[in-house]
């Protein structure tokens, strides 16, 4: 497998010296519990024009190591090892010397663009500052350069925007501005720490494109730190997988993705739901393979391989000796030591690496959990199942008011603007869309059981209008919610037994029944009955989400609303929760309304999909139809923006990039709401364009269970799912 | 922005009228100016007392609404009425505002800058010696009544003076310098100002530094500070230009209200050091059953709230682009 990679500047890279070489970097912090060993021996080298991806879950030390490279760790941190920038040792340099390097030779892009810019200065001034720190430019020249930079990163109308304050920029634009700042002084290396994590998937695709442009403009090496294996697959040349403060596997992306030799990497790749997952008609979905347990504490780590307690194939040696990161046996032998240094040879830290892929089948390392057989309800055709929830033309507008004493309405926020869908028994409807599209408002409207502004909500066959209080309370029992953030959704001052008992008490269960129900619930979500006496802070994120699910299930609801239930969790934990949800659905005959921004997750769990855009549903249908033949240009763009954890597919895909950001729901365009960003619109003739601008498209029926609200709906395969394989 | 401020101004003006009226009613109904005259030796005839009280618009027998109407009409025309001694409130008020201004001008500037500096530096050096010491000292000061600090300073000064009169402990200036503004007079005034100003500064530094420390701590971990340093700014410059600049925002309204309201709020300091400012007037006028002076202090305080409100709005808008409205 040594195919040529078009994106890699092969010749240049082979001869060039590494511009940034990190070797044996360790970082430790003092803490009350003892010394936290956050980074325990990281080595890598990047050459000009090369992209190194560093992946790892939260707490793996990936961000700390990049901060150590920049010398931005707090004074209490103890850093050893070596960081060489173009041959010059950086560790041990003082603030003055490091300040000359930071922002000049090393550019940095941080995760959260909402907080990474100083709120009180204009974006332009912050870029100008970055320029003037390192170059002797006068104000006018620096300003001119700032405008140029904003133009390079694709900020529309940069001459005017240069004077905007950060709060006047959208998240994607702020991240562009961050990149402009990072490349302001033609750096040799750009370190990007989760640069797209806080962004919507279409904006993520835009920002990654900008990063690529930035690299072309500067010829810099990029160190890309992320937890998203999909982002790395398409973006990086080489990848390093970190676990517990150390790299456990490293090599060219193809090697690591297609021939992983470390069980952690194998587990990580197996635990991500895949957008390109092919699902044969009628068969049960593939269960994800979660990695059991949690990452180790970094205080006083146990001897042996840190992954051993979670590793399904650990042997005795794994619990006593920590494996070195070495050339994986069975890999092509290194031609020269240079190629090992250059990262072209895959390295693995595992005692059993030589067996994996040889005597040990990769797919068999993790036992695939068995999901229960589809229940009687799920086998019924959809039309014969009872309707659990039905929305018909639901509208929620918020008035925009002005004035402190006398309020007058100056506009309307059309958060939800006439949406209709239904959920049948035993079915999961995935509701997807970018932030601000009205997903959450829809959920709140359903939960609130309003008598509504317009449209009807029918729950279990009952129109909620004209219901009295008791009926409403009854309906609420049958409809429960699981929230996104398991840290915030549980009261930290209540033991979880009380948390689970609360809904039961509210609905008048007696003490004996409650006492019997709690162990039952804990068992149902894979926790121990003894856990009832503990407090939420004693549990990990995944366990807390299990508690939230148990709470939602306490009253035996028929419909569970899941609001981004896994987006706050690491992928290896997420897989376990998704499997649990799948299992509970079949066992208890539940219906789910699953709201998420991660389309791969929705692809995995949903039977039907509703795609929302600016308060409307633009495409609705059976998941297989929508994913295989997305017919609304927005759905196509959304799907094509999702990075796949498959380097080859990523290289071959062409993205449909959307321009700009989601318009404000206070200022909804006439005609088709999507026309302004629609990639298809620009290809249409004048009369067709006029139709898009003037006529609000109705849902066009494309199949037995598939509609799209587009005048020119036509299927395009954007995922290139494994159908062809 | 202008229209917004005008609307705020109108709101504040209503507030001033209400506050002034309420103060007048309270003072007019609860104080008894007659007692002030009845206690005289030799006793004054009742009719002459009533006449004087009527003249001063202080006669408790006149209906309060009628007295208020009379007072309000005068105030609108710029006349604050007579003090119980028969002087013009205007003169007394003017003199005292001057005294308060001279006392507060320097003390509040040094006090707020000092508070910001101590708080910010304490945050940067969290849990180090300076931070621990300044925190301890601040709570010590905040727990102590002002007059205790004042008296303690007086005692300390007396010991330092060691018989001489280098640090003066009473009054604004020595009588021989009254009305003079030459070098000697200024030196004399500075000698007098030292202790009361120091009292106010200590109080303010202690108070403001607590707020500044906590807002600065919030900012220290922020991403934009990290961005600033990643750009290549030196630690100190990043901390001041990006950190402190942002951390000062939430402290601004507190500073403005505190400083402006000190004009009538420095009562204990003025009393302790014998300065005849507005703070002293508040207490003295109540003691003297001086309805018009009390009402003046009330009116003045309400106007101060108005000024503080507008000033803090303006300053905040100037400092934080996020609240500016087009």
Describe the structure.
The complex is a heterodimer of chains A (725) and B (326). Chain A has 25 helices and 24 strands. The model of chain A is unreliable at 1-14 and 721-725 (pLDDT under 50). Chain A starts with 9 loop residues before the first helix and ends in a 17-residue tail after the last strand. In chain A, 32% of the residues lie in helices and 21% in strands. Among the domains of chain A are: 373-406 and 425-606, Rossmann fold (3-Layer(aba) Sandwich), CATH 3.40.50.300; 624-718, no CATH class. In chain A, the strands form 4 sheets. Chain A has an 8-stranded mixed beta sheet with strand order 6-7-8-3-9-10-12-11, with helices on both faces. With 725 residues, chain A is an alpha/beta fold. In chain A, helix 17 packs parallel to helix 19 (541-553). The longest helix of chain A has 18 residues, at 201-218. In chain A, strand 7, helix 8 and strand 8 (221-226) form a beta-alpha-beta unit. Chain B is an all-alpha fold and 326 residues long. Chain B has 2 domains: 1-85 and 305-326, no CATH class; 90-287, MetI-like fold. Chain B is built from 14 helices and no strands. The termini of chain B are close together. The mean pLDDT of chain B is 91. The chains are: A alpha/beta (725), B mainly alpha (326). The A-B interface holds A 70, 72, 95-96, 99-104, 107-108, 110-112, 115-122, 126, 129-130, 133-134, 165, 167, 178, 181, 185, 404 and B 7, 222-235, 242, 245-246, 249, 319-322.
Highlighted features:
heterodimer, A: 725 residues, alpha/beta, Rossmann fold, 24 strands, disordered C terminus, B: 326 residues, mainly alpha, MetI-like fold, 75% helix, 0% strand, Peptide ABC transporter permease (chain B), membrane (chain B), MetI-like (chain B)
Please, what is the CATH homologous superfamily of the domain at 373-406 and 425-606 in chain A? P-loop containing nucleotide triphosphate hydrolases
Low-confidence parts of chain A? 1-14, 721-725
Q: State the domain count of chain B.
A: 2
Order of helices and strands of chain B: HHHHHHHHHHHHHH
Which word captures the global form of chain B? globular
Using the coordinates above, name the CATH class of the domain at 373-406 and 425-606 in chain A: Alpha Beta
Determine the fraction of residues in helical runs of chain A and give it as a percent range: 25-40%
Named at the architecture level, the CATH assignment of the domain at 373-406 and 425-606 in chain A is 3-Layer(aba) Sandwich
Report on the biggest sheet of chain B.
Answer: none
Sheet-strand content of chain B, in percent, reads under 5%
The coarse overall form of chain A would be globular
**Main sheet characteristics of chain A:** 8 strands, mixed
Class of secondary structure makeup of chain B: mainly alpha
Walk across the major sheet of chain A and give the strand order. 6-7-8-3-9-10-12-11
Oligomer: heterodimer
């Amino acid at each position: 497998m040594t195919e040529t990679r078009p994106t890699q500047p092969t010749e240049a890279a082979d001869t060039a010296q590494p511009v940034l070489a990190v070797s044996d970097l360790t970082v430790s912090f003092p803490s009350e519990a003892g010394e936290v060993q956050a980074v325990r021996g990281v080595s890598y080298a990047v050459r000009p024009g090369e992209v190194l991806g560093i992946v790892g879950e939260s707490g793996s030390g990936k961000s700390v190591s990049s901060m150590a490279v920049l010398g931005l760790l707090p004074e209490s941190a103890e850093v050893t090892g070596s960081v060489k920038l173009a041959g010059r040792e950086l560790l041990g340099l003082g603030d003055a010397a490091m300040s000359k390097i930071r922002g000049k030779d090393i550019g940095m892009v941080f995760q959260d663009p909402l907080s990474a810019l100083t709120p009180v200065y204009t974006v332009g001034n912050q870029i100008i500052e970055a320029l003037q720190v390192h170059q002797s430019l006068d104000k006018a020249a620096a300003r001119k350069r700032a405008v140029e930079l904003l133009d390079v990163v694709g900020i529309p109308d940069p001459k005017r925007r240069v004077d905007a304050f950060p709060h006047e920029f959208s998240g994607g634009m702020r991240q562009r501005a961050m990149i402009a700042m990072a490349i302001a002084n033609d750096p040799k290396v750009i370190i990007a720490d989760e640069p797209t994590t806080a962004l919507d998937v279409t904006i993520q695709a835009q920002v990654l494109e900008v990063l690529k442009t930035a690299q072309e403009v500067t010829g810099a090496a990029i160190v890309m730190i992320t937890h998203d294996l999909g982002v790395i697959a398409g973006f990086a040349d080489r990848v390093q997988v970190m676990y517990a403060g150390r790299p456990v596997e490293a090599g060219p992306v193809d090697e690591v993705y297609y021939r992983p030799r470390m069980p952690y990497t194998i587990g990580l790749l197996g635990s991500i739901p895949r957008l390109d997952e092919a699902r044969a008609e009628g068969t049960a979905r593939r269960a994800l393979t979660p990695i059991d347990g949690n990452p180790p504490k970094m205080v006083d780590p146990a001897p042996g391989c840190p992954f051993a307690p979670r590793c399904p194939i650990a042997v005795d040696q794994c619990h006593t000796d920590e494996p070195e990161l070495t050339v994986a046996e069975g890999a092509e032998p290194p031609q020269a030591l240079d190629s090992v240094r250059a990262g072209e040879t895959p390295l693995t830290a595992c005692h059993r690496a030589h067996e994996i892929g040889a005597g040990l089948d990769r797919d068999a390392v993790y036992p695939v959990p068995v999901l229960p057989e589809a229940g009687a309800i799920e086998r019924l055709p959809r039309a014969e199942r009872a309707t659990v929830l039905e929305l018909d033309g639901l509208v929620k507008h918020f008035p925009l008011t002005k004035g402190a004493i006398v309020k007058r309405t100056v506009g309307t926020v059309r958060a939800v603007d006439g949406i209709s869908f239904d959920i049948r028994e035993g079915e999961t409807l995935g509701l997807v869309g970018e932030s601000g599209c009205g997903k959450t408002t829809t959920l709140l409207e359903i939960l609130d059981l309003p008598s509504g502004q317009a449209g009807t909500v029918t729950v279990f066959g009952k129109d909620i209008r004209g219901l009295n209080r008791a009926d409403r309370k009854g309906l609420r029992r049958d409809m429960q919610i699981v929230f996104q953030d398991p840290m915030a959704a549980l009261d930290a001052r209540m033991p979880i037994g009380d948390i689970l008992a609360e809904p039961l008490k509210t609905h008048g269960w007696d003490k004996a029944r409650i006492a019997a129900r709690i162990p039952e619930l804990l068992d149902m979500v894979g926790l121990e009955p003894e856990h009832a006496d503990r407090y939420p802070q004693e549990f990990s994120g995944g366990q807390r989400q299990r508690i939230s699910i148990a709470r939602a299930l306490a009253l035996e609801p028929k419909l569970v609303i899941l609001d981004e239930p896994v987006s706050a969790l690491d992928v290896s934990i997420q897989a376990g929760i998704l499997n649990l949800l799948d299992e509970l659905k079949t066992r208890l005959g539940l219906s789910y309304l699953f709201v998420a921004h991660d389309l791969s997750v929705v692809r995995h769990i949903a039977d039907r999909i509703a795609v929302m855009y600016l308060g409307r549903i633009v495409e609705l249908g059976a998941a297989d139809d929508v994913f295989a033949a997305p017919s609304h240009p927005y759905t196509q763009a959304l799907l094509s923006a999702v990075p796949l954890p498959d380097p080859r597919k990523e290289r071959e895909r062409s993205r449909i990039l959307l321009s700009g950001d989601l318009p404000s729901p206070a200022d909804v365009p006439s005609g088709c709401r999507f026309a302004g960003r629609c990639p298809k619109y620009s290809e249409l003739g004048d009369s067709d364009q006029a139709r898009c601008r003037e006529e609000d498209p109705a849902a066009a029926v494309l199949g037995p269970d598939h509609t799209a609200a587009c005048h020119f709906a036509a299927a395009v395969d954007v995922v290139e799912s494994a159908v062809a394989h | 922005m202008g229209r917004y401020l005008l609307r705020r101004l109108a709101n504040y003006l209503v507030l001033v009228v209400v506050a002034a009226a309420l103060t007048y009613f309270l003072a007019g109904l609860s104080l008894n100016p007659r007692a002030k005259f009845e206690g005289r030796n030799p006793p004054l005839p009742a009719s002459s007392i009533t006449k004087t009280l009527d003249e001063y618009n202080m006669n408790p027998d006149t209906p309060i609404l009628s007295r208020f109407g009379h007072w309000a009409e005068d105030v609108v025309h710029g006349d604050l009425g007579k003090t119980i001694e028969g002087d013009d409130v205007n003169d007394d008020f003017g003199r005292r505002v001057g005294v308060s201004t001279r006392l507060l001008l320097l003390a509040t500037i040094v006090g707020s800058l000092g508070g910001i500096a101590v708080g910010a530096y304490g945050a940067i050096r969290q849990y180090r010696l300076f931070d621990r010491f300044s925190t301890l000292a601040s709570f010590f000061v905040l727990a102590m009544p002002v007059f205790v600090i004042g008296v303690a300073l007086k005692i300390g000064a007396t010991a330092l003076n060691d018989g001489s009169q280098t640090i003066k402990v009473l009054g604004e200036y020595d009588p021989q310098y009254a009305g003079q503004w030459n070098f000697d007079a200024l030196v004399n005034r500075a000698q007098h100002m030292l202790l009361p100003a120091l009292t106010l500064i200590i109080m303010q530094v202690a108070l403001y530094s607590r707020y500044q420390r906590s807002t600065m701590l919030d900012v220290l971990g922020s991403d934009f500070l990290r961005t600033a340093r990643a750009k290549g700014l030196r630690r100190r410059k990043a901390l001041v230009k990006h950190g402190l600049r942002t951390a000062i925002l939430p402290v601004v309204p507190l500073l403005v209200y505190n400083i402006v309201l000190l004009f009538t709020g420095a009562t204990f300091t003025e009393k302790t050091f014998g300065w005849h400012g507005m703070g002293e007037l508040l207490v003295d006028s109540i003691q003297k059953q001086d309805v018009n002076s009390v009402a003046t202090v009330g009116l003045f305080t309400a106007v101060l709230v108005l000024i503080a409100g507008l000033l803090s709005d303006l300053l905040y808008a100037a400092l934080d682009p996020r609240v500016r409205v087009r």
